[in-house]
Amino acid sequence: MADILTDLAAQLGSKVALIDDRPGGPIVKWTFAELEATANRLARVLLELGVQPKDRVVSCGQNSCWLVAMSNAVRKIGAVGVPLNYRLTAEEATYVVDNSDAVIVYADAEFADFFAKIRGETPKVREILIFDGTAADGQRRVEPLLHAQSPAPVELAGPPLEPMTMIYTSGTTGKPKGAVRSTLGNPAQSALLWAEIGYVRDDVYITTGPLYHSGPGGFLATALCPDSLPVVSTAVTM
């Protein structure tokens, strides 16, 4: 069974998939073909680092094309994506990273020093991968690793793996709890929601909330999923 992004990129390769227009930075646009190629390269990097199905991969950063690429990469290899709230304190982030059993941390360069400071308290993490900037000591920049990888889709042996994410609660009653759940959802329930909203083909979705929340992340994933509703949308991150 073809990967959902691979299928969509085959249909709409040159169509803009993501626009990142954060204040103070350049406008970044990725087509569906570029998103697919980057996600495939990231998936191959993870496999080379020994990531196995159901291993946890933490992602941290403000909304960006890079975060969307990793969310697709972990799905492609059957790993579990753990979006981390970048507003957490060092103590809170340490708890989530360690409690999730994450083996890889993938973070915006803005947070490289932050993860360097808590490195000694997260011994289960094998690698810290930094994108869009300079890595701290003991970390690795993602972009050079991608150059050596093929943009072709990853082919895994065995039956298709169920895509999953691990979302942490706010911890209002004790420590935060990590909830592992399928990203497929309930197709019938989703179809009713999309019909109520009134999505149509070529709608543009503006992500106004941080992607570490399940709502914004879920709606963005829907905008890039051709099988979940009769619409092919351009997702916009802010």
Task: Describe how the helices and strands are arranged.
Layout: H1 4-12, E1 16-20, E2 28-31, H2 32-48, E3 56-60, H3 65-77, E4 80-84, H4 90-99, E5 102-108, H5 112-117, E6 127-131, E7 140-141, H6 142-147, E8 164-168, E9 178-182, H7 187-197, E10 204-207, H8 214-223, E11 234-237
Parallel strand pairs: 1-11, 3-4, 3-5, 4-8, 5-6, 6-7, 10-11
Antiparallel strand pairs: 1-2, 8-9
Helix pairs in contact: 1-2, 2-3
Description:
The two termini are 32 Å apart. Helix content is 34%, strand content 21%. With 238 residues, it is of the alpha/beta class. α1 packs antiparallel against α2 and α2 (32-48) crosses α3 (65-77). The protein has one domain (4-237): 3-Layer(aba) Sandwich (Rossmann fold). The chain is globular, with a radius of gyration of 17 Å. Strands 7-6-5-3-4-8-9 form a 7-stranded mixed β-sheet, sandwiched between helices. It has helices at 4-12, 32-48, 65-77, 90-99, 112-117, 142-147, 187-197, 214-223, and strands at 16-20, 28-31, 56-60, 80-84, 102-108, 127-131, 140-141, 164-168, 178-182, 204-207, 234-237. The chain contains 8 helices and 11 strands.
Question: Care to give the gist of this entry?
Answer:
The protein is α/β, with parallel strands linked by helices and 238 residues long.
Strand % is 15-25%
Task: Give the integer mean of the pLDDT values.
Answer: 88
- Number of helices, where a helix is a run of at least 4 consecutive DSSP H or I residues: 8
CATH architecture: 3-Layer(aba) Sandwich
By CATH, the superfamily comes out as: ANL, N-terminal domain
Number of domains: 1
Order of helices and strands: HEEHEHEHEHEEHEEHEHE
Q: Strand count, sense and closure of the main sheet?
A: 7 strands, mixed
Show unreliable segments.
227-233
Distance between the termini: 32 Å
> Tell me, what is the CATH class?
Alpha Beta
Strand order of the largest sheet: 7-6-5-3-4-8-9
What CATH calls the topology is Rossmann fold
Number of strands: 11
Principal-axes geometry comes out as globular
Approximate helicity band: 25-40%
